[in-house]
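Pair request: fold both.
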Amino acid sequence: MSAEEIAQAFVQHYYTTFDSEERPSLASLYTESSVMTFEGQQFQGATNILGKITSFGQIAHNITTVDVQPSVTESAMLVYVGGHVSIDGDSPIQFSQVFQLVATGPGEFVLNND
């Protein structure tokens, strides 16, 4: 798979899961060294990151842009996502998010930074 195909598949899986009741299953995408920064606060490790993202209410993402760039090694990539998000049924607002995906094996990636 190309980097673009991997990024598209990741984004589809991540946001479909995030927007559902299955949000806690995203834990498998994070390691204990993964870091998420949200509104100036850093969360490290799968448990802390999941604690934050499961605290959000009902979320609905509409993805309009996915861009992928190579990262520091061949086994890593940066994925930029843009679109609109609706929180608890409110009017959609614009959002963007950047992920660093790192390969852990053939066809397997984890979120290093979110």
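--- second member of the pair ---
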Amino acid sequence: MIIITIVVISVYAGIEIHDNGGIQTAGVQFINPTLWFDAIGFSVYCFEGIGVILPIMEVTERKDIYLKVLIFTVGFIGIFYCAFAEFWLFAFGANNLTTPLITD
């Protein structure tokens, strides 16, 4: 279900980029000084499964390659997390920075 969601969102963003004639960078700040604290909560959620690393390491058959697999996995998650966010931001520009909650 997660992969389907990622694919659908990526296709939708790709269509938006195509319709707009390319990526939109007008009005996009590298770091938004008023909202950058929100990224801390999202980052914690992104890496929430990291807490099970040591118990899994204890039952791993090949402990000699465990560190390599761990570094690759955490690196891939971080790169994918940043690339997906940048792709979405470049697709919709600064227009998507509103809160999408119905309770607001």
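Observation on the second member. The first helix runs from residue 2 to 19.
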